[in-house]
Sequence to fold (567 residues):
Amino acid sequence: MVISTEGLSFNFGNQQVVKSLSLQVPEGSIYGFLGPNGAGKTTTIKLLLNLLKTDQGSIHVFDKELQSNRISILSQIGSLIEQPAIYLHLSGKENLMNRALLLQVSEQRVDEMLSLVHLTDAAQKKAGKYSLGMKQRLGIALALLPDPKLLILDEPTNGLDPNGIIEVRELLIRLVTQHNKTVFISSHLLAEVERMATHVGIIDKGEMLFQGSIKDLEAISQPQVQIEVANTVDAANFLKKQGFTVTDISDDHLLIPFTSKAQMGEINSLLNGNRYVVYSIKQIHKDLEKLFLDITQKA
Amino acid sequence: MKGFILSFRSEFYKTRKTMGFWSAVLLPLLLCLLLFVGFFNKSDHLTNMPGMMAWLQFAGAILAVMGSLLLPMLIVFIGYSVNSIEHKADTWKSLFSLPISKLSVYAAKYTYAFFLVFLCLALFVLFTLGFGNLLSLLKPTLKFNEYHMEGLLTKIYFKLLLSSLGILSIQFLLSLLFRDFLKPMGIGFVLTIAGVILANVDWQYAYLYPYSHPMLTVKGLLHNRMGNGSDMPEITVDLFTKDIFVSLGVAVMVFIVGYFIVLKKSVK
Fold:
């Protein structure tokens, strides 16, 4: 495990913002840390970086205890927390050069990072004049500068346009698959994480609601059969009479819990045989957005 | 130690284009230049003055305000500017998630603030001497060449530097803790005014109060000047008076307390 926490808790005054959290982030994973705004994501990340003092519980990074190995652990982490920390009076390149000086990284690496995040042309421009997306990209470049084994990114696609989001996503996937890095990324956008994460943790009000691989998440998302028919109401009544459970009816389709492919064939032939024209029939997963709502509301 | 040096260099790199840094250079330059112009234009009045008196007038014009307002306010400003750069850019979190010890980051920042005060005072010495000598070149009627006060002036400013350390550490800590400008500035201003008053009324415990120290240092010089019966003033600088020891003691104590605050403080 690259990150593993046990019973991690944190209070702001009387308010407990992180409750007995047990994170398990495997090596080589893209771990999507999901939760609505104010769920405790940023607080958890600050605990992982030793910016906040842990009240209860333990944090191990690279199998070493965080508090007593702070510097050696931090030297292998690149991070971006909330809005990027950038000196606005310095140019984009100077921001990177300053960090390079502190981390003893070469200027060549700085230039590589600039071109990686497409800021080479704006390198000499003052960061104060950057757009939100450019600042975010500079923040990502700062995080990547030391070539860290573990990247911790807090909402890194905030403020990026669709192209930027795709680029960041592809970059992260490349880092994990080709360079054997581990990425811990927080987000409140499920669709975003769904597209790249290998593992997911879902947190709400400081509590972990779900943790596992993306497959585990899909497994509990109960696949359904979506049938597109001409007259959904009549078709639904007909299927009910045949002993099927219809979970949802809309103007153009109805949903039935998926049990097997044979069952799908049976439904198809039943409907067609009784003059209900089937336009399409397919197995679907409940989308994560909905699943997320279900999980968070149940809690 | 490496972390400290890297952090210190980074402090310079970050601030080299800011007013915080340049004010430490421009303030002595502009004030000495102003003085130079003033003396140059009024040279007729000063022609008959002996060299020593000319130098004392020249250097004393700045020293007189140095103790009361200039130095303390300069320190308030430097303490603020060194810390505000991180407050403004929201970079405390990235500073403290670097693989560098918190002590190095904190000490480097403090040392850099000290360096700026040192730089500023050193430039005051340099520019005072430089412009004084330039005056004697341009206006040989002024007797600046008859007296040399390099050693004495250096000693005076060195004592001022020492006397300012207590204030510096307090202001540095205030600026570290408070994000906005008004709190450290306002507190610093009030404490400075109080310090000047206490020093001026010769309160017997003023030496215990850091914000009085620069004023006490300047007053110490005046006292020496009056103490002599002859018409030529005699100036001696007693470097290690009890107020200087208090200043150093306060600086060390507040520095240590500040470190533990940084250690315990949550980074927002």
Notes: Chain B has one domain: 2-264.
